[in-house]
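Supplementary Methods. Inverse-folding protocol.

Structures were first reduced to a discrete structure-token string of length 337. This string, shown here, constituted the complete conditioning input.
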């Protein structure tokens, strides 16, 4: 089976996808987004790596926020994103988003609109929701958001499974007490970690031992990290959410061939392949798997195992994990490779 077909057909697991960065051009059109704004939203796809910056990547979200600014548009946007992942043969999806309010929408309205879309798609794909704390916010605002997230998790415990720490890594700081509160209230934790060089924060996050980390670009000493934090990371064995295209497009990785993921592969450390913001970066999970084969010398068997192992890193229930493993095992039996 040739690689493109294999990657498309493989039942996939997506663990790092931001809702507002995952809208396709077709979805934005259906949300009445102007063509000129869609072009701006996807402008990074056509720029050379030397012309891109991490800050510019984060600016793309404004277009999505402007198009998704009431309960109905939030519901539709969530549904469109889930359908896109389903059409790419993703069987389990964790969506993440930061609760926000608009003139005619409270943060509770926002979360409930996302939850309703997830509930309405449950027959076709298993979707869990991770709610984010934006590192640009001050501690008081973050504490208020964490209280809201905990309250909403108690209302929708089968859908809202975890909390994320995201936003521009160039601002703000990590507060371990805030996320300890999340754990104490039954939430699982994933943290964006090491997107830029920040040895002290990376060490603090790794010592906190979240359930997963996102990106992990500047952990290994060859990539802006240090021997100390790489050794610490290796002792924690925290699964990494790797987003190949995102890192290259944002300029945090020079190219695919020298991507820091090769250190995880070389050392047999746990990782999963993800899209991050498939709409902004013009990708999907099938493409990310193809890139891993093309540039990191992975085989079809490797892709299957990476996907199968990713099930253990999900925030799904044990029953759901068993079902997902059965899907992958049965697929392997019927697709000889």
């Amino acid at each position: 089976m040739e690689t493109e077909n294999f990657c498309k057909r493989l039942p996939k697991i997506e663990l790092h996808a931001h809702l507002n960065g995952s809208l396709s051009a077709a979805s934005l059109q259906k949300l009445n987004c102007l063509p000129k704004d869609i072009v701006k939203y996807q402008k990074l796809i056509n720029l050379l790596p030397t012309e891109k910056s991490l800050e510019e990547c984060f600016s793309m979200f404004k277009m999505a926020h402007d198009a998704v600014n009431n309960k109905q548009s939030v519901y539709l946007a969530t549904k469109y994103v889930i359908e896109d992942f389903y059409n790419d043969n993703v069987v389990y999806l964790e969506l993440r988003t930061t609760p926000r309010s608009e003139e005619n929408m409270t943060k509770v309205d926002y979360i409930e609109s996302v939850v309703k879309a997830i509930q309405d798609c449950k027959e076709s794909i298993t979707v869990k929701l991770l709610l984010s704390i934006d590192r640009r916010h001050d501690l008081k605002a973050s504490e208020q958001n964490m209280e809201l997230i905990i309250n909403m998790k108690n209302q929708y415990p089968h859908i809202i499974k975890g909390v994320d720490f995201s936003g521009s890594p160039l601002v703000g700081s990590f507060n371990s007490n805030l996320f300890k509160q999340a754990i104490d209230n039954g939430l699982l934790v994933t943290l964006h970690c090491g997107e830029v060089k920040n040895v002290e924060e990376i060490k603090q996050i790794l010592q906190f031992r979240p359930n997963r980390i996102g990106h992990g670009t500047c952990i290994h000493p060859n990539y802006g990290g240090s021997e100390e934090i790489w050794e610490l990371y290796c002792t924690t064995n925290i699964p990494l959410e790797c987003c190949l295209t995102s890192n290259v497009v944002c300029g945090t990785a020079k190219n695919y061939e020298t991507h820091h993921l090769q250190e995880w592969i070389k050392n047999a450390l746990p990782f999963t392949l993800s899209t991050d913001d498939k709409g902004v970066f013009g990708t999907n999970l099938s493409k990310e798997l193809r890139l891993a084969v093309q540039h990191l010398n992975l085989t079809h068997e490797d892709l299957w195992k990476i996907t199968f192992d990713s099930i253990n890193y999900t925030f799904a229930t044990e029953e759901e994990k068993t079902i997902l493993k059965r899907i992958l095992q049965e697929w392997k039996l019927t697709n000889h490779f």
